[in-house]
Amino acid sequence: MLAYNIMFAIVHMSDVVRIPPSRLTNSLKDAAIQILKEKYESMLSPDVGYVVMITDAEVSSTGKLVAGDGATYHKVTFKALTFYPKLQEVVEGEVVEITDFGAFVRIGPTDALLHLSQITDDYLKSDVKQGVIVANQSSRALKIGSKIRARITAVSLGKGAGMGKIGITCRQPFLGALEWIQEEIKKGKGGEAKPAAAPKEKKGGK
């Protein structure tokens, strides 16, 4: 059985936020959370991975003033929901784009590259206009919207927004489109009909 590790986590972080007077129409906490959302959500860090959303924050009620700046600066500790992809993790996702060189698969908040060479051993043809990749011998197909299971083989996390690169493979047992996996499971359980054994000859020709 394949094991899944949870790549989502709640991470505790801290910062100092600048809160201008125009942001103080609501509570201090609400203003700080909104500023944190604008700064951190959809950002990428090599330490925590993809920041999906800010879930909560505690704001110091005592702020500091800077000469010539009408805003106040407050220390905050906050919780962020993050997604950190790890090598060899098994993930499930949805094909969102077909290209000449493979497919992009949405896993969590980002897209991973499934190269043609990592889909199957069969010869593959990519039809970008039709949004489909078809295997020559088995006629198996991947298309936009296909649900797949894959293993992460490459992770490169930079800083900022949209700087991460993730590579995945389906060239292992029980990986690939979910319907392919069901076919493999049926074969493993003897789901395919077996040819009937030839009748044995009776001794003496009778």
UniProtKB/TrEMBL annotation:
Main location: cytoplasm
Gene name linked to the record: rpoE'
Subunit and interaction comment: Part of the RNA polymerase complex. Forms a stalk with Rpo4 that extends from the main structure.
UniProt xrefs under NCBIfam families: PRK08563.1 (NF006333), rpoE (TIGR00448)
Family annotation (CDD domains): RNAP_E_N, S1_RpoE
Catalytic activity, reaction form: RNA(n) + a ribonucleoside 5'-triphosphate = RNA(n+1) + diphosphate
Localization of this protein: Cytoplasm
Class of enzymatic activity (EC top level): transferase
UniProt keyword annotation of Hydrolase present: no
Source organism: Nitrososphaera viennensis EN76
Protein name: DNA-directed RNA polymerase subunit Rpo7
A Pfam family per the record: S1
GO MF annotation list: DNA binding; DNA-directed RNA polymerase activity
Record EC number: 2.7.7.6
Comment, domains: Forms 2 domains with an elongated structure; Rpo4 packs into the hinge region between the 2 domains.
Domain S1 motif span(s) in chain numbering: 88-171
One Gene Ontology biological process: DNA-templated transcription initiation
Ranges where the record places region Disordered: 187-206
Keywords from the UniProt entry: Cytoplasm, DNA-directed RNA polymerase, Nucleotidyltransferase, Transcription, Transferase
